[in-house]
Structures are given as structure tokens and as C-alpha cells.
Write a structure and sequence with these properties.
Number of strands of chain A: 8
Largest sheet of chain A: 8 strands, mixed
Number of helices of chain A: 11
Strand content of chain A: 5-15%
Radius of gyration of chain B: 43 Å
Shape of chain A: globular
Structural class of chain B: mainly alpha
Number of strands of chain B: 5
Oligomer: heterodimer
Order of helices and strands of chain A: HEHEEHEHEHEHHEEHHHH
Largest sheet of chain B: 3 strands, antiparallel
Distance between the termini of chain A: 56 Å
Distance between the termini of chain B: 125 Å
Number of helices of chain B: 45
Helix content of chain A: 40-55%
Radius of gyration of chain A: 26 Å
Structural class of chain A: alpha/beta
Helix content of chain B: over 70%
Strand order of the largest sheet of chain A: 7-6-5-4-2-3-1-8
Strand order of the largest sheet of chain B: 3-5-4
């Protein structure tokens, strides 16, 4: 997964540079936060993503694709997209870069926006906060300042409410990733927590007026029964799945902490022991005890564990919690509604 | 001797070893050769009977000759080479030398060689002339021979004191050593003349002496050649040579007398040879024909034997100079034949022939049963010897059975014969009729060996062929023989022997299902209504009674652990086979075999595995699924049931073992008629696992710490799930998996139809002796377990359920339903209570739902997460402020506990 993402990232770099050379003039390189304030998605893109998942995705497998569009002031307009083919065992030598270039060239021929502005991915119960996504999004954002990742949740969508979210890495996280230093100290210095890893960008779905008219018309025609998924009271399955996933993450977190704990203990033990030994020797020789820095030079401390993973896990846990909160709130509402309805009927 | 006359002979290249100058053949030799070849048929066969001694000595003499030649031409390098070879050859002949004493000619060459070397060593002039290689060889050889001769010092000194006498022995060799040799042997003319005389007598075919001599020359010249007649002459001469050495050289006349038996033997040898050839021819023929041929062959042998009888009859007369056949003569002859046993090149078939002849002679001359018994023992032993390969089975099986039967006849007819392996040869009494006859030999060993052979035959026959059936018919005969021996030993044998024969009997009984006894059990005695024939059929001991009797005897009397272990296992197996589950189980538990069976040898372990499997199947038949599952678990979970039961080798591990191991394992295999059906075994296991596992799974659906009862079963389920397209089940496993799925839903009817149907009947259930009973039991079990599963799975959706409904649903009568539900309530598997007046089960609904369960688990996990987190924090505290540490620690911990406790309380509140 990760390698593939990196592959796309590198392509993105090259494609953006060519695009830049073509004179689109979009590289305004705003300082940090103000790069993109809003994402405007074409109805077509949404439908294409949904269709892509429906046709190819199943279960825990995710589908991915490339977003195309353009940047207008602080607004990112996504006007088209194309899918990545599903990865299978036997086409290991499939050239992603080549494929992307080909696609974009072909699309340019039919006069479609061919600026690479990010990518989309489906998700399984919101479990998208992973290292792979981080790496991939970092390389995108590194190459193209404005790129976003669209997360599409098919399960929620199937329940009646379209779930599509655009995320970007925060500038802080970008800095950290650029440094490639995930040691506890570095993260502490960067003052980054899981809450500030990703920022969500508001989404607006825009359709042409003709489509809007059609929508209105359809709305009038559709019966209430078509929307009954929204009112479904059977919630246990979804909740159970979420809990299960949450539990798994908590387990991972727990392990991570244990690992960190061991590291801490080892370090301190080593420091104390070595310190004492060295100083004892020095004392016996009548020399002054060594300062701290020299000691750490003398004795290599154990490799600190990378903290990025635990950050990601924390982020994921957060997402799950959000999901569950949202879900339960809605369900409670529904239950109250159902109760009221029953009382009314009686 | 025109040595350089021709060079075109074929033997030349081979003989070049012995030095260029000596090799060429006289032309005349070729002429002399042809008639010799044709006429000397008798001599031709002599080669076969040459004893090992002759062969070895000939080898030695050949080498010595070469050395002497090399000495003559001062080729020390050659000498050294040959000397080394000689040393090796002598080492090979060691065993013979030990028996016969060191041959004189050997001592002589050693002495001569040493003298010669010393001479060369002294000769400084000659040494200077020698080339480098020779000089070097000289010094090494000198050292070597000095060292070597130290072992023979006494012999050499005695030789040096009296060279003539020693030379005497080598007369023949010297004569071969070519006439022209410059010899110290000139004074032995007389003796060599005698040898010549002898030569002549040996070849009375009217060949001129010149020819003979030429032949000898040729023999000498092409020593190493492989031509037949060369060997023959060599052997004749060495024959006489050895005879001389045995100290029989006193009178030539006696030797002529002796000639007669030798020729006789020669004739026999010729016969042997012919048979040999016939055998070889037969071997080449196809396997199917082989048997017929064998019979033919045997017939032919018999014929020849008849022809040979007078001949052999004559022989003892020759020996005994006209006296009649006595015991001593026959025994002597017997020993003579037996001595050849086990030696290389002995024709085993011929040996058996001879022994049979001997029996006939003994019988004809009324030598008494003792001798006959003795010879019979030896015949059977030779029959066993007949096939040297351990893995293949014997061809003379039928003969062997007959022989043992005859032997038993004799033994039964003559109760005054004592047979025992502890009777020494010396204390045997074969003919003195006044005292009881005593014969050495063990009938028990013979029978045990016979049993082994039978097993081998069965192992080596294709179990699906008609041949196997044919062989299997012999089993009755084997059993009969064992029974006879048993009767015999019960009278005469020691307890140990009785135990052994009992075990044999048991081993032939335990695996057979006693249909008669079974029938009798099914139909209680109706007395007079039975026909005579039926009663006759019903006579004979119940195998159960028999087993009981034999085993009890062994338990009481046996002192070797192995026999008792085997007996116990067989007894359990027999019980289990006849559905006496509790007896079988108790015996198994009482014997404590499960604890120490891993120390037993593999065949016993295989027997143990077989017994466990049979026990499991028995439990299943009784409807004790749990016991069945436990008994079969060990065998089935390994996935090597086939191997563990000794019913075949696994292909997978073929690479891991070498040829030798494979052979050993092959020998351990159980013959096909003892096999336990593996599919039946697996089916029984899987069905028991299903009956246990499905309700368990339903009961512990949301339990995180749920354990699998049967890994194998889960594996099958997973395999079933992985199928992309589920068709109707085909194999036994698929049936069980499909049935399990149905049972999971509490759908017992579908489950039933999957477990019991045409296919499964054919594959599995019909194999049981009481198939219908088993099927009824199974249906009942399926209904019960489905009910339990149903209740576990769907109790959460019911407030209350009427037992009547349940009884209708599962077609069980009300009391059964009642008892099952009560049991579940008592075991706290089902949170419910029974409402007696309305006959309903009222659910308490105290079980947490799936979500609640998950939430509880999550809370637990979070608890541990918090704890871990706090530890990290503690650490930080520790490094900074050691002063406050303890206080803070305690505080934190308390708080943590309180908080966690709070969580739990909250959770449990929401849960209920």
C-alpha cells in the first residue's frame, strides 16, 4: 500500500511540475493554513466515487483514485476523477505512474481539467487513519500544496446519509513529516497531538442548475418509503463493529504504551548504572564525575520507539469515538422519535 | 615351453599382471582345452562345491606364485605390491586359518621372502645397480616383512628347522611353479610323483598326461583368467592340497576309496546346479506365472528326489561300509547339511530338499520319531531361512504350514517326546526308547515365526486383489495351528510359553467381530425352536469368553510387561468392538496405560492407538459423544491418523526419512484385514465434535475467551466457509459441515438429513454392526443438541417459550425437553426458570446483549490501557522528584482503582 502511495506521490510531483510549466499559474504557495479553505466537489465526482466503490470495493478492501480539478483562490474545485485499478497478486509489475500519466493525457485530450489536486479513498467503518494514508497524503501535499484526500464511507452512505470528508495534513504535521524524525523529543518539540494531525476542510457539492432542477423534480416524485433507511432502528450491528474496531485499536495502543514504558525503564536503568559505575571509577581515580553529556556519548542509549504510530492510533481512536458518538446520538433521537410515535398511535 | 610363440589368446591381457615374460600360452593348450571343456562336465560342476577354504587358499597360492616370479626377476617393487595384497588376502582368510592352522606354504613364502630380501640387502653391488624405485621398495618391504614376520616367528623357525616337511605340503604348487624353476625342491621328487599319480586318477577320462600337463601350464599361465576350466583345475589341486593338510595324506589308497563319496557329492552338486539354473530361469518369468512354475518346479524336484533316493541310500552304505543306517549316521549327515546353512553360496532350496530326503530315509528305516522330529525342526528352520530378505515374504508358505502340521501330528501322537530349546545338543535323546525322547527345538518359536511370515505375506499382497483373499483363507489354518500348539503347550509348556502362545491366540482373535455371539445375544434362547444346525453353529466358545480366559491367565502369570500390555490392549479392543463400553473403559483406566504408553515400542503403540480409536467408536455407538471425542482427539488432531494406526505411510514425510527407516516402518504396517476404516473414524470424530461444539459455540457466542473444543472441526468449518460457491455436499466432511451449519440455526431436520442419508449410509453408517441402532441414537442426539443450540441462540428474543412448542419443534417428548432445559438451568447455561402450571420457560434476560458484552470488554481494555499509561507517568515522576514519589504513587493508584471500579459499576448498571 505504502509503496504504491509513494509511487503516486512521485508522479504527482512530476505531473504538477509539468502542469506548472504549462502555465496554469496556480502555484501561489500561500503560507500554511490559508492554502485551502473550502472544497467544492462536482456532483459527477461524487457519483463516480460511489460507483467505483460499488463496483469494485467489498468488505474491508478499499478503492482509491485520483482527483482532478483546479484551485480558485482559497477554494479547491474538484471537477473530475478517475479510479486506480484494483491491485491483485498477478499484476505486480503494473506501472502505476505510467497509468496515471496515460490517463491524464487522455483526459486532457477531451478537455477535462487535468490538474492533480489529490486523491480519494473509501473506508471501512472510518478506519482510515493509517500510516499509509499519512505517507501518501504527505507526499501529495509536499508536491502540491493544495491537495486533499477525500474519504468516502460507503457504510454510512448506505444507511442513508452521504458521508464524504476532505482532509489535509496540518502544517505542523507537515513539518514533522519533513523532518522524518518521530522520536518522542521531536514530537514534543513540535507540540503535536492527535487532535492536530488532520484538518477537515468543509465540502460543498456543486451541481449545474439543470441538475438541480432535475433533483427538485425527482424529490417531488419519490415516495417517503425510499428514505426509510434513514429511520432504520436496527443499529446494533454497526455499533458492534465500531466497538470491535475500537477495541482492537485500544489493544494496539496498550501495547504501544507498554513498549514505550519498557524503553523508558531501560534507558533510566542504563543511565543510572553506567553513571554510577563510571563515577565510581572516576572517584577511585580521584577525578571529578563526568557531566551528563559525556555519559550519553559514552553509552549509547537504547533506540527510542517511533511515536508516530501511537499518534496515529490515538487519531484513529478519536475517529471511532466521534463515529460512535455521532451514531448513538442519532440513534437515540430515532428511538425517542419511535417511542413518541408509538405513544401517539396508542 | 614356447613362451613367446603366440600372443593372440584372449586371456593374455588379464594375466599380464603376473609379469610379461610368463604369460604367453602354448598353442597346444588351445587344442587341449576344447575336449576338456566338453568332457569334463563333472569337473565343471566342482567349482560350485569348493569350500571357502579352498577359495581363500587358492587366492593365497596365486599371490605367492606371483611373488616368487617377481623375486626371480628381482622386481622388488612388484614384490612389495604383491606382498601387500597377500597380507590383505591373508586377513580375509583369517577365519579359515584360525580353524586350520597357518598354512605351511604361507609360512614358507614369508621365510623365503625375508631371506631373499636380506640377501639383496647385503648385496651392495646389486643394490647400487638397482633403480631408485626398486631400492626404495626394497627398504620398505624389508621393514614391512620384518614387522609382519614377528607374528609368525615360531612358525618360521620351525619351518627353517625342517624345510623339507613344509615343502612337502607345497609340492603341488611347486609343480605348478613350472618345471624350470631353480629349486630347492629337487629332493621331493617322490612326493610330487605321488601328486601326479593322484592327478591322473582324478582325471580318468583318458586324457594323455601331456595334455593334462599342458592344462596345468595353462592354468599357471593364466592364473587370473576367469575361464572355467582354469578354475577347475585350480580347485582340484587345491582340493587335494587341503586334504593333505588335514593330515590325511597317509595313504594314496585310502584317497582312492574316498573318491567315491566325493563323486557322489559331486553328483548331488550337479543336481543342485541344475536346480539352480532352473530357478534362475524361473525368476526371470513373470510374477503370475511364477507360482505355477514354482509348483511345477516343486513337482519336478520331487521326481528327481525319487530318482535320487537309491543314490543317497547308497551313500550311507559307503560311509559305513555296508552297515545299515543308524541314528548316528543320519545325525551326522544332518549336521553336515546344517553346517552349510547360512553360508554364502549354499543353495537353500537344495538344502531343504536334502533334509526332506533325510526324513524319508529316517522314516523308511524306522529310526524312530525322535530323529524325524529333529529333522522336521530343521526343515522348518531352513524353510524360514529360505528367503533371506526380511521385507519380502516366503514363497514356500504352504509347505511350511504342512510341515508344522505334520510335526504337531507327531508330537501329539507321541507324548513321550520332550521338545525344548533349553535341551542341549549333547543331552538329546533321539532313539533310546526306554527313556523319554528329548529333542532340541522350540515349537513356540516356530509358530511365532510362522505368524510373522503370515503377517508379512499379508503386508505384501495387494489388499484389493483376489490373491489377498486367497492368502486370507490361510488364516484359518494359521489359527488352527496356533490352537494346536496351544493345546500342546498347555500340557507341556512352561507358563511363559503358555503366555506367549496365548498372546498369539489373542492377537488372532481380538479384532474379529463375533457374529455368532452377537446373534445369540440378539435372539435370546428360544430353546426348542432352534434347529439342530443352528445349535451346531452356535457351539464353540464365545470369543468374549475365550478372550477373558486367555487374558486373565496372562494377567496372572505373565512376567514380561510387553505381553501383558498387548493382552490388555487386545482385551480392551475386543470389548470395545463388541460394544461393552464400560468394561473396556474400566480396563483402560485401571491399566494406567495412558500414562506410560509412550515408553512402549512402536508396534505396541500402534496397537494402543488402534485400541483408543476402537474405544472412541464404541463410545460413539453408545451415544457418549463426549467420551468418543476425547478418545479420538489425540489421533485425529495430529492429522496423521493413517500413520498412527499403522495403516499406511504418509507421503508428506517420505522425504524426511531414509530408505532404512522406510523399510522399518513398512514392516510395522498392520495388514489390511485389521484396518480400521479411516473415513468412519473421521466421521465419528467430526460428528461428535459437531454435537459438542455447536451448542458450545452458541452458548459462548460473544465470549472473547472462548476456546475451541476441536480444532479439526473448526478447520473443516473454515474450509467450508471459504468455498466461493456452495453446492450440495459430496464428501463426508462436506456433509458434516453442512449439517453443522443447519444445527447452528437449530434446524435439526436439515441437520438430520445431512448426517443420515443414502450417501452417508453407504460411506459410514452401514459399516457399524448395528447400524440402525446407531442411526436412532444419532437422530436423538441431533434433536437434543439442536434444541440446546436453539435455546442458546434465540433465548434473547423470547420472553417466554412454551415447552410444548419446543417439543413439537424438535419432535422430542415433553419430559425430555423438560429434562434438557432443567439441566441447562442448573448448569447456569440458560438464565431462565420453568413455570410449571403453564409448562413454559420464562427467560430472565440477564445475559448481556452483544453490544453490552462488547462494551464490557472495551471497558476492561481501557482499564488496562489507563494502568499502562499511569505507569509511564509514574516513571516520569520517579525520575524527577524522588521525594514525593511514594506518596503520589499511592494516591494515583488509589484513584485509578476507584475510577476503574466506577467504570465497572456504571457498566454493570447499564447492562442490567
Amino acid at each position: 500500500m505504502a509503496s504504491r502511495k509513494e509511487g503516486t506521490g512521485s508522479t504527482a510531483t512530476s505531473s504538477s511540475s509539468t502542469a506548472g510549466a504549462a502555465g496554469k499559474g496556480k502555484g501561489k504557495g500561500g503560507s500554511g493554513d490559508s492554502a485551502v479553505k473550502q472544497v467544492q466537489i462536482d456532483g459527477l465526482v461524487v457519483l463516480k466515487i460511489i460507483k467505483h466503490y460499488q463496483e469494485e470495493g467489498q468488505g474491508t478492501e478499499v478503492v482509491q483514485g485520483v482527483l482532478l480539478g483546479l484551485v480558485v483562490e482559497d477554494r479547491l474545485e474538484i471537477t473530475n476523477c478517475f479510479p486506480f485499478p484494483q491491485h491483485t497478486e498477478d499484476d505486480a509489475d503494473f506501472d502505476e505512474v505510467q497509468y496515471q500519466m496515460e490517463m491524464m493525457r487522455s483526459l486532457r485530450h477531451v478537455n477535462i481539467d487535468h490538474l492533480h489536486v489529490g486523491w480519494y479513498q473509501s473506508t471501512y467503518y472510518g478506519s482510515f487513519v493509517t500510516r499509509a494514508l499519512l505517507d501518501s497524503q504527505f507526499s501529495y501535499q509536499h508536491a502540491i500544496e493544495e491537495s486533499v484526500v477525500l474519504i468516502y464511507d460507503p457504510i454510512k452512505t448506505a444507511q442513508g446519509s452521504l458521508s464524504l470528508k476532505a482532509y489535509r495534513l496540518t502544517p505542523k504535521l507537515m513539518e514533522v513529516c519533513k523532518e522524518k524524525d518521530f522520536s518522542p523529543e521531536a514530537l514534543k518539540k513540535a507540540n503535536i497531538t492527535f487532535e492536530y494531525m488532520f484538518e477537515e476542510v468543509p465540502i460543498v457539492i456543486k451541481n449545474s442548475h439543470l441538475i438541480n432542477v432535475l433533483m427538485w423534480e425527482l424529490e417531488k416524485k419519490s415516495a417517503v418509503a425510499d428514505k426509510h433507511e434513514l429511520l432504520s432502528l436496527a443499529s446494533s450491528n454497526h455499533l458492534g463493529k465500531n466497538l470491535q474496531l475500537l477495541m482492537d485499536r485500544v489493544d494496539e495502543m496498550s501495547q504501544d504504551i507498554v513498549k514505550y514504558n519498557t524503553y523508558m525503564r531501560n534507558t533510566s536503568k542504563q543511565q543510572q548504572q553506567k553513571h554510577q559505575q563510571e563515577n565510581m571509577q572516576r572517584q577511585s581515580r580521584g577525578e571529578p564525575p563526568l557531566p551528563e553529556e559525556d555519559l550519553s556519548k559514552l553509552f549509547k542509549p537504547p533506540q527510542p520507539p517511533a511515536r508516530m504510530d501511537s499518534l496515529l492510533i490515538a487519531g484513529q481512536i478519536n475517529t471511532y469515538c466521534q463515529n460512535i458518538k455521532e451514531f448513538t446520538a442519532q440513534n437515540l433521537g430515532k428511538l425517542f422519535m419511535a417511542q413518541a410515535l408509538q405513544e401517539y398511535n396508542n | 615351453m614356447s613362451r613367446f610363440f603366440t600372443t593372440g589368446s584372449d586371456s593374455e591381457s588379464e594375466s599380464s599382471l603376473s609379469g610379461e615374460e610368463l604369460v604367453t600360452k602354448p598353442v597346444g593348450g588351445n587344442y587341449g582345452k576344447q575336449p576338456l571343456l566338453l568332457s569334463e562336465d563333472e569337473e565343471d560342476t566342482k567349482r560350485v562345491v569348493r569350500s571357502a577354504k579352498d577359495k581363500r587358499f587358492e587366492e593365497l597360492t596365486n599371490l605367492i606364485r606371483t611373488i616368487r616370479n617377481a623375486m626371480k626377476i628381482r622386481d622388488v617393487t612388484k614384490c612389495l605390491e604383491e606382498f601387500e595384497l597377500l597380507g590383505k588376502a591373508y586377513g580375509k582368510a583369517k577365519s579359515i586359518v584360525d580353524k586350520e592352522g597357518v598354512p605351511r606354504f604361507y609360512i614358507r613364502i614369508l621365510a623365503d621372502l625375508e631371506d631373499y630380501l636380506n640377501e639383496l640387502w647385503e648385496d651392495k653391488e646389486g643394490k647400487k645397480k638397482m633403480n631408485k624405485n626398486n631400492a626404495k621398495a626394497l627398504s620398505t618391504l624389508r621393514q614391512k616383512i620384518r614387522k609382519y614376520n614377528r607374528d609368525f616367528e615360531s612358525h618360521i623357525t620351525s619351518y627353517k628347522q625342517n624345510p623339507e616337511q613344509s615343502a612337502d605340503e607345497d609340492a603341488e604348487k611347486n609343480e605348478e611353479d613350472s618345471e624350470g624353476s631353480s629349486d630347492e625342491d629337487e629332493d621331493e621328487d617322490g612326493v610330487s610323483a605321488a601328486t601326479f599319480l593322484k592327478k591322473k586318477s582324478e582325471a580318468p577320462s583318458g586324457e594323455s598326461r601331456k595334455f593334462l600337463k599342458k592344462m596345468d601350464d595353462e592354468d599357471e599361465d593364466s592364473e587370473d583368467s576367469e575361464d572355467d576350466e582354469d578354475w577347475d583345475t585350480g580347485s582340484t589341486s587345491s582340493d587335494s592340497d587341503s586334504e593333505e593338510e588335514e593330515g590325511k595324506q597317509t595313504a594314496l589308497a585310502s584317497r582312492f576309496l574316498k573318491k567315491a563319496p566325493t563323486t557322489d557329492e559331486d553328483k548331488k552338486a550337479a543336481e543342485k546346479k541344475r536346480e539352480d539354473k532352473a530357478k534362475k530361469k524361473h525368476d526371470r518369468k513373470s510374477k503370475r506365472l511364477d507360482e505355477e512354475e514354482e509348483e511345477d518346479n516343486e513337482g519336478g524336484e520331487w521326481e528327481r528326489v525319487r530318482g535320487g533316493v537309491p543314490l543317497v541310500k547308497e551313500k550311507p552304505k559307503m560311509f559305513a561300509k555296508g552297515t545299515e543306517i543308524t541314528h548316528a549316521v543320519v545325525i551326522k549327515k544332518l549336521n553336515e547339511i546344517l553346517q552349510a546353512r547360512g553360508k554364502k553360496g549354499t543353495d537353500r532350496a537344495a538344502q531343504i530338499e536334502l533334509l526332506q530326503l533325510l526324513v524319508q530315509i529316517a522314516a523308511e528305516n524306522n529310526l524312530g520319531e525322535g530323529v524325524i522330529v529333529k529333522i522336521k525342526f530343521n526343515i522348518i528352520a531352513s524353510l524360514y531361512d529360505y528367503n533371506p530378505n526380511l521385507a519380502t515374504y516366503m514363497k514356500m508358505w504352504g509347505k511350511c504350514l504342512d510341515c508344522i502340521n505334520e510335526l504337531m501330528d507327531i508330537l501329539f501322537a507321541n507324548p513321550n517326546i520332550f521338545v525344548g530349546e533349553n535341551i542341549l545338543e549333547e543331552s538329546e535323546n533321539l532313539h533310546n526308547a526306554d527313556q523319554p525322547l528329548r529333542v532340541r527345538g522350540c515349537i513356540l518359536t516356530l509358530v511365532e515365526r510362522m505368524d510373522e511370515e503370515f503377517t508379512k505375506i499379508m503386508q505384501n499382497t495387494d489388499p484389493h486383489s483376489q490373491e489377498y483373499v486367497e492368502h486370507l483363507k490361510d488364516e484359518a489354518q494359521v489359527c488352527a495351528i496356533i490352537e494346536r500348539v496351544q493345546r500342546y503347550l498347555e500340557e507341556k509348556g512352561t507358563t511363559e510359553e503358555v503366555c506367549r502362545i496365548y498372546l498369539l491366540r489373542i492377537l488372532h482373535t481380538y479384532y474379529k467381530f463375533d457374529y455368532k455371539a452377537h446373534q445369540r445375544q440378539l435372539t435370546p434362547p428360544e430353546g426348542s425352536s432352534k434347529s439342530e444346525q443352528d445349535q451346531a453353529e452356535n457351539e464353540g466358545e464365545d470369543s468374549a469368553v475365550l478372550m477373558e480366559r486367555l487374558c486373565k491367565y496372562i494377567y496372572a502369570k505373565d512376567r514380561t510387561d510387553r505381553i501383558r500390555t498387548c493382552a490388555i490392549l487386545c482385551h480392551i479392543y475386543h470389548h470395545a468392538l463388541h460394544s461393552r463400553w464400560y468394561q473396556a473403559r474400566d480396563l483402560m483406566l485401571m491399566s494406567h496405560l495412558q500414562d506410560n504408553i509412550q515408553h512402549a515400542d512402536p508396534p505396541v503403540q500402534i496397537l494402543y492407538n488402534r485400541t483408543m480409536v476402537q474405544l472412541g467408536i464404541c463410545a460413539f455407538r453408545q451415544g457418549l459423544t463426549k467420551d468418543a471425542h476425547n478418545a479420538l482427539l489425540d489421533i485425529q488432531s495430529s492429522g496423521r491418523a493413517k500413520e498412527l494406526l499403522g495403516q499406511g505411510l504418509l507421503l508428506r514425510s517420505l522425504q524426511e526419512r531414509n530408505q532404512e527407516q522406510e523399510k522399518v516402518e513398512r514392516r510395522r504396517q498392520v495388514p489390511f484385514h485389521l484396518h480400521i476404516n479411516l473415513e468412519l473414524l473421521e466421521c465419528v470424530y467430526l460428528v461428535s465434535a459437531m454435537l459438542l461444539e455447536i451448542p458450545y459455540m452458541a452458548a459462548h457466542e460473544s465470549d472473547a475467551r472462548r476456546r475451541m473444543i476441536s480444532k479439526q472441526f473448526h478447520h473443516q468449518l473454515r474450509v467450508g466457509e471459504r468455498q466461493p460457491l456452495l453446492g450440495p455436499p459430496e464428501s463426508m466432511r462436506e456433509h458434516v459441515v453442512a449439517a453443522s451449519k443447519a444445527m447452528k440455526m437449530g434446524d435439526w431436520k436439515t441437520c438430520h438429513s445431512f448426517i443420515i442419508n443414502e450417501k452417508m449410509n453407504g460411506k459410514v453408517w452401514d459399516l457399524f454392526p448395528e447400524a440402525d441402532k446407531v442411526r436412532t441414537m444419532l437422530v436423538r442426539k441431533i434433536q437434543e443438541e439442536s434444541l440446546r443450540t436453539y435455546l442458546f441462540t434465540y433465548s434473547s428474543v423470547y420472553d417466554s417459550i412454551s415447552m410444548e412448542t419446543l417439543s413439537d419443534m424438535f419432535e422430542l417428548d415433553l419430559p425430555t425437553v423438560h429434562s434438557i432445559i432443567s439441566k441447562m438451568i442448573i448448569n447456569e447455561e440458560l438464565m431462565a426458570s420453568l413455570d410449571q402450571p403453564t409448562q413454559t420457560v420464562v427467560m430472565h434476560r440477564t445475559e448481556p446483549t452483544a453490544q453490552q458484552n462488547l462494551a464490557l470488554q472495551l471497558a476492561e481494555k481501557l482499564g488496562s490501557l489507563v494502568e499502562n499509561n499511569e505507569r509511564v507517568f509514574d516513571h516520569k515522576q520517579g525520575t524527577y522528584g524522588g521525594y514525593f514519589r511514594d506518596q503520589k504513587d499511592g494516591y494515583r493508584k488509589n484513584e485509578g482503582y476507584m475510577r476503574r471500579g466506577g467504570y465497572r459499576q456504571q457498566q454493570s448498571q447499564t447492562a442490567y
